[in-house]
Design brief:
Protocatechuate 3,4-Dioxygenase, subunit A; 2% helix; globular
Length: 189
C-alpha cells in the first residue's frame, strides 16, 4: 500500500481498567466458557490484527478479560456483590494471532455493571494486543447497549464507531449463541 492510498483507521486506545486480572493466570487458548458450562449467552469473538497498511500481524499476543454474564469480574476489587460470580467462567484468556493475523475466543456476552453511584459501564470486553513493536489496550462494546451514550471512556474515543460491534446469531453452535468480528488495527506489527 502506498502513502497515497487510504490507510486503515487505528483502533482507539482505551483504559486498562481497574479489574485487569494481574493476580490470575490466563486461560491459554480460546475458550473462557469451561467447555460451555459458563452461564450466559455464548459469544464467539474473532477478528484479525492488522497494521494501518493492512498487513497481518502474526504472532501478536492477545489478552482479553471481562465481566461475566451477570456483570461481575473475578477480581477482588469488584464490589458488585449483587451480581454473582460464575465459577465456570474464566474471565481472562490469552492467545496468539495466526499467520494471517487471525484470532478467536469463545466467551459469554458480558453484562453492564455499576461503576459508581448513578453511573454504569456498558457491557464490554477488554483487549490488550502486544506485537513486536507496539502494545494497544482497547475495549469492544455492543451496539444498542443503553449505557453506551453515557459512558465517559467510550465517548472519549476518537472513533467510537470502531469499538462498537453488533453480534449476530451463529448457526451450528450452542442454542442462542452469537458471533462478532472485531478487527484491531495497530500502527506497526
Amino acid at each position: 500500500m502506498s502513502d497515497t492510498q487510504t490507510r486503515l483507521p487505528r483502533t482507539p486506545p482505551q483504559i486498562l481498567g481497574p479489574f485487569y486480572p494481574f493476580m490470575l493466570t490466563p486461560t491459554e487458548g480460546f475458550d473462557l466458557t469451561n467447555g460451555g458450562q459458563a452461564k450466559g449467552t455464548v459469544l464467539y469473538v474473532s477478528g484479525r490484527v492488522l497494521t494501518e497498511t493492512g498487513a497481518p500481524v502474526a504472532g501478536a499476543k492477545i489478552e482479553i478479560w471481562q465481566a461475566n454474564a451477570a456483570g461481575r469480574y473475578p477480581h477482588p476489587n469488584d464490589d458488585n456483590v449483587a451480581a454473582p460470580l460464575d465459577e465456570k467462567f474464566q474471565g481472562f484468556a490469552v492467545s496468539r494471532t495466526d499467520e494471517n493475523g487471525g484470532y478467536a475466543f469463545k466467551t459469554v456476552r458480558p453484562a453492564a455493571y455499576p461503576a459508581a453511584p448513578g453511573r454504569w459501564r456498558p457491557a464490554h470486553i477488554h483487549f490488550q494486543v502486544t506485537s513486536k513493536y507496539e502494545q494497544l489496550v482497547t475495549q469492544m462494546y455492543f451496539k444498542g447497549d443503553k449505557y453506551n451514550e453515557s459512558d465517559a471512556w467510550l465517548n472519549s474515543a476518537s472513533r467510537k464507531d470502531l469499538l462498537i460491534t453488533d453480534p449476530t446469531p451463529v448457526a451450528g453452535k450452542e442454542p442462542g449463541a452469537q458471533e462478532v468480528t472485531f478487527d484491531i488495527i495497530i500502527t506497526r506489527g
